Amino acid sequence: MRPREFDHDEVLRVAFDQFWRKGVRGTSLSDIARDAAVQRGSLYNAFGSKEALFLQAYERYAGDYLAALQKALGVGSLRKRLTAFFDLTITNFRSGTPPRGCPTTRGLMELGAAEGEGLDENARQAFASLISRIIALVQDALAAGAARGEFDGNPAAAALHIVTMTRGLAVLERAFGDEPQLRKIAAHTIDLVLGRKGG
Amino acid sequence: MRPREFDHDEVLRVAFDQFWRKGVRGTSLSDIARDAAVQRGSLYNAFGSKEALFLQAYERYAGDYLAALQKALGVGSLRKRLTAFFDLTITNFRSGTPPRGCPTTRGLMELGAAEGEGLDENARQAFASLISRIIALVQDALAAGAARGEFDGNPAAAALHIVTMTRGLAVLERAFGDEPQLRKIAAHTIDLVLGRKGG
DNA sequence: AAAGTATTTGACACGACGTCAAGAACATGA
DNA sequence: TCATGTTCTTGACGTCGTGTCAAATACTTT
Lengths: 199, 199
Description:
The structure is a homodimer.
Chain A: H1 8-22, H2 29-36, H3 40-47, H4 50-72, H5 78-93, H6 103-110, H7 118-147, H8 155-176, H9 179-194
Helix pairs in contact in A: 1-2, 1-4, 4-7, 5-8, 5-9, 6-7, 7-8, 8-9
The structure holds a DNA duplex.
């Protein structure tokens, strides 16, 4: 068989960079083809469709991001862990120039509420899966903290609350672009969940 | 001059319905023209562009929605007010079949991070403006509640927290479509802000 | 009734997604 | 070494989206 003339992973990187900056709907395969120095038709041959290409690129991102979160949530006191968690989250939203926002949140809100779109459903599951895993990670950290007496409450409910807040932060980031505000909200949330003072 | 052959407000209603269901990028002016029984060119003549049409339709929605929130936030104890606020918010996300989600959150995440897009900036301001007004409304309710001894905390910080949560709920709604879950998170948030027991 | 003005209408240019057939490049077997 | 077959690449095509334009149209005003 004839070998690929392009680097599969390189294309995924270039594609996700564009998707992250401009959204799935706002990115054309021509854009990706140009930046990756690949013929547009080759992308269709290799990936099948824009959504399929996005899905592959997103899975790679999701894996990396989840690993980073897990690391952040594994060191120090519960308060330190949650602080590192929010830090990483906000830093992720604010990365790039101009800041690119949260690809998961953006992707979720880009989904069509239309009926027949099967690829949309795959994407929805990918987004939902990452969020579910993040909730599980936070819940584990809270449960461990509770066992150590650093937290008094329902880990499941608190984890859901915290991760819902991070989604809200992603939205406010787009609305106001005010990073100090985001960090204040995050700090306030940690105070609220752990009980203002100690932790 | 020649009079319009279509009802300006009717077009706005039809257009916003489509924008709400399918997003701005996912809605074509042909769709709107068909549903409104108006020639596509007439829409361009009357509104100038899709984004401009969206902006007009959105302003109408924002006004109505804000008025409803204000009403919900004006009756009963602080706990009742916040409950009504979250109720209305979630009911709004879940309205339609299938549920349409939150148009503001969706619109915000649809924005291009691109450079030159001026209409995007107008839309961003419209979204941000509605969110700011909602924050102000919630903050007023909290301040009034504090004056009555129903709340002990920083109204500004708590209002920001609460509204950030509603944005997060809008995202989770798209991810999981689980309305009971949304209502649980909302109840938990009220408990957290008011202090689990009384209020 | 005539003139003027805004609206309507259809054609056009451009770009995006996705498909297809033909050409090109390589591995394998003789 | 050469023929064969399979995959990748390339360019053309169809369809649909946005936005523009000129010509036709319908009303108001003088």
